[in-house]
TrEMBL record:
The keyword Aminoacyl-tRNA synthetase does not apply. InterPro entries: AAA+_ATPase, ABC_transporter-like_ATP-bd, ABCF, P-loop_NTPase. The lineage of its organism: Bacteria, Pseudomonadati, Bdellovibrionota, Oligoflexia, Silvanigrellales. Coiled coil: none annotated. Signal peptide: none annotated. It comes from Silvanigrella aquatica. This is ABC transporter domain-containing protein. The keyword Translocase does not apply. SMART domains: AAA. It holds the Pfam family ABC_tran.
Amino acid sequence: MSPSISVHDLCYVLPDNTPLLKNINFNLRNEKVGVVGKNGIGKSTLLKLLAKEFEAKSGCIQIIGKVSYLPQKCIDYSEYKLSQILKIDQKIEALNRAEKGCASETDFVVIGDDWNFQYEIEIILNELGIAHLHLNRTGKSLSGGEMIRLLLAKVMLEKSNIILLDEPTNNLDEESKSQFFNYLDAKNSLFVIVSHDRLLLNKMDSIIEISNLGLKYYSGNYDFYVEQRSIEDNAVAQKVKNADELFKKMKIQEQELQQNQLKKNSQGKVNSKKEGMSALEKGYKKEISQKTTSHLSVLHEKKTNLALSDLKIKSSQIRDHYKIKVDMELSKIPSRKKMIICNDLNYKYSNSKNKLWKNNLNFEIIGSSRVSIQGKNGAGKSTLIDLILGRKNPLVGDIYLGSKKIAYLDQWCSLLQENLTIFENLKKFAPDEMSNHEVRVRAGRFLFYGDDIFKTAESLSGGERLRASLACIFAMTHAPDILILDEPTNNLDLESIAILAQSLNDYFGTLIVISHDPYFLNEIHIKEQIYIE
């Protein structure tokens, strides 16, 4: 029987009773489904509900098939052996005892029919490009990308036909992504994948969007979803425009009716005097006029209220969209100024006998260039950034910087001090003479209004952390001459990535980016590349 997931009227509330998911309905059958939506909207929660790690407040989930689940944030595996992470350590030990002729009955139960499973493991690890990893190594010896691939291997070994993945391509280089995509293409199973990776989302058969409007299913890949959503948004915008125009028209007519009636009443008084009407006649005519005015006024007020109600209904169908504003003095860098020069640079880790790079690094970054640093996982991209920032000392070679005005943003937004509020973090970066009012204005440009600025950094979502970090960087009177970003799109939703791209396109200094997201690199107009190995 084909694997399937059916969800009916699913509702989930947070521990503080705040509704997160409401009246969720969908049916999935043996397809690859991407889940998109803003950070904090409930994407990861939906996967946890499907994996039975969370319990819904109400509704029904029916699953046919065996489920494997890979969360975005895993437990700390640093002290575990790789065989333990893969949950094959007992089987390996049982096989070893069987080969030596001293296996127990329990060992044969553990092995079952998997006498060739070590060969199967080798194939899977090779497919994911981690066949070089010895299973006795510990988790702390792996890079982020290697750990992700190992956990994907764990999912593959479980032989499930329903696979739930939360941001599986985070920290994967291009080669690792390609290997994962090959696995995805070859596997005939039901996949539900939360991701902001547009390359991955375009390999999906369908897209589920979770928004302030609820959950909606699109029967196509990411590009199809974007096209359909644009059509829907334009249609809603036109409906809102029409409803707004009708409401304004009704208000104008209502005002004109009142003004015309006032004129009639005033003219009636003049005519009554001219015609010499008796008091009884004047009173009767006035009563008729007031009743007519009241009736027309009530009718028109009803029409106006209906128009207003329709406008509110149409407006409630609009998806939330945000746009930030970067307003600061532009960085003025001469077009031929040498901003970064690396001469015969290399580095060696304390626990290594060899240099990090096979060949010493030599490059120059000139003027307001936009440069990406590329290389496989473990090639030393982040180490190069640390050397540029002066956090590490080179083994050989030297680095020249054309400016000391450098800002750095990593994927964890670690420039934020966790126990401080957004306001306090901004004050740290802002000039001493900047008033509290101006700090609030700067926060507002990055969509932090009212009491939002009193949230602590540790309580922020991924998208909020990004906006707070950008607000801090751009709170300075003058833009940094050099801005360095290390995997900035990891842990961000697609809308936050768009916000980041918009901010960077308003920046005119030297930009250096480590990223495996070709869409993002194209959006921020990266023109040059430094490849290290």
